Amino acid sequence: MRRAFTACFSSNAICDKGFLGFLRHGTPALTTTSSSCRVITLLRLHSLSQSPTCRNPNHTPNHLSELQQLLLEKSRVGFDEPDDALRVFDKMLRMKPLPSVMDFTQLLTALVKMKHYSVAVSVFSKMCYFSIPVNIVTYSIVINCCSHLKRVDYGFALLAAIFKRGFVPDVVTYTTLVRGLVSQDKFLEAELMFKNLLEHNQIEPDAVIFNTIINGLCKTGNTSQAMRLLRYMEKTRCMPCVVTYSTVINSLSKDRLVDDALGLLAEMSDKGIQPDVVTYSSLIQGLCNLNRWDDITQLLKDMDRHKISSNKHTYSILVDAHAKDGKVRDAEYLIELMIRRGQNPNVVTYSALMDGYCLRGELDKAFALLRTMRNEGILPNTQTYTILINGYCKKMKVDTAIHLLKEMTLKGLTPTIETYNTILDGLFRARRLDEAQKFYRKMLNQGVKLDIVTCRILLHGLCWNGLAGEAMSVLHEMESCGLVPDIRIYSILIHGLFKDGKVDEARNLLHNVRLKGLHPDFISYNIMIQGFCQEGLLEEAYKILLEMEENNCLPNEVTYNTLIRGCFKNKMYDGACVLIDEMCAHGFKADASTTSMLFDLLQSKEQDPALLAMQKKFMP
DNA sequence: TTAGGGTTAG
């Protein structure tokens, strides 16, 4: 196990196909599939390419104007298949005179609309090969494709080509690159590039490039800086727009600062900037996270008043919130409602409902929903399977979960680290230790990159199965591989050590936590109190209680209940009585386990004076 | 100037 762990953390080799490999990889085979629309398209183009050519520059040949109309239409609605676009491209190559740069860029746009970014890149490379004229717009489109494919490095290679060919990149070209950097978690580089462009007057910044940077700030957790940039925009010629506000509102909502977000909404209205469905959906999401149902109703009414219709996103947010809150019937009703209002649920909507079923343990319904999705032609994705796998694992049906993992892989879906973590946890919880360790090794062999959650599951699994010693060895391995354990990892281990009766080791680890300057949280403090109580070390448990108060981590209901039960167990009824009074004074209540313990004690025949006093107090 | 860039959901 330890060796396996080391192997995982030291193997970070990345397979890089390079630009050509990437092009080859991205080029689909020019074969198979047909649809009525495609046939019509091809017939039209066939007739276009057969028609006589016209070289009069003052007169657009009929076939070209037809092509332009077709491309315009396709760039609006997209082709049915990428193959269609490629066939159109081949016909265009053979046309005389050659269609214009704009015609070719419209073809690329159509591919981008269909999200066939790698196909668009390969079309571009063919254009270069056949010396088809290109311009800065063509380059910007292709850079955008590279950004979407998370290959901003190729985007920069294209920027070099732009300079080499004497074109001048404009604000759109640079915005695309900035966005590419942001989407590849290179925000600092994006910010630096933006600042340089401004300092050297390379661009006249517009709202879009500002919004891209603001979005980057939000994504990197700098919402307050994003807010400052919004304020800065107000002082410039390009004023913040609905997208600027929506981006910041979305980020504030995610940070649980929904009241600030609502403040911005009011500000927008004051300034005459109309919020749209994205603005409202972001706010609704924030309110859902805080279960502020009344405010959500209010916002939905506001949307109605302003004639802003909910879209798939809005409904999915609402379905998810209801499902997570256990209100699956309401979630089902919302899906019915969205269908009635002409919004078809998609994989996100159904997966959210499925999560609700799984949380309630209604696995039959969750599985039936998977079938419904398939019948409706909605393909379940990795997250759908992960939700279902999680549902089965929580119900200890790990074999079904593993079967689903195989099924998703066969369907060409790539499980994520969350999928693997879920199964690993399921195996440990089902106490199928050998299989868990085997599964873990398989994860490593397949090159799955572990995260801190995997480590927690592994350590928790070992501790849960009475192998705290082994878990400690894994911890040391983790540290030697450069992974910094957090307080949750230490809590798991301290819990495990106490569980195995290794009190001295638990104490040592606790000492290490303090030495490392980590701040224990409620959970870790409560674990320690429980551990000491279990061992009859009430004095040490009480010291932890005092430490909590000193460290501004005030004891909660769990703390008091744990300590009180510890007192009962160790026949320290006086102490229990004082703690009960203190707990009540703080507005906390005895939980089910403490109450039943107290009830049993009061029923007992024990003649302890403190117990008799308690009897008088609780059963007068 | 009929072609290119920015915000939301599980």
UniProtKB/TrEMBL annotation:
PROSITE patterns: PPR. The keyword Repeat applies. SUPFAM superfamilies: TPR-like (SSF48452). PPR repeats lie at residues 135-169, 170-205, 206-240, 241-275, 276-310, 311-345, 346-380, 381-415, 416-450, 451-485, 486-520, 521-555, 556-590. The keyword rRNA-binding does not apply. Keywords: Repeat. Belongs to the PPR family. P subfamily. NCBIfam families: PPR. PANTHER family: OS03G0856100 PROTEIN (PTHR47447), TETRATRICOPEPTIDE-LIKE HELICAL DOMAIN SUPERFAMILY (PTHR47447:SF22). This is Pentacotripeptide-repeat region of PRORP domain-containing protein. It comes from Daucus carota subsp. sativus. The lineage of its organism: Eukaryota, Viridiplantae, Streptophyta, Embryophyta, Tracheophyta.
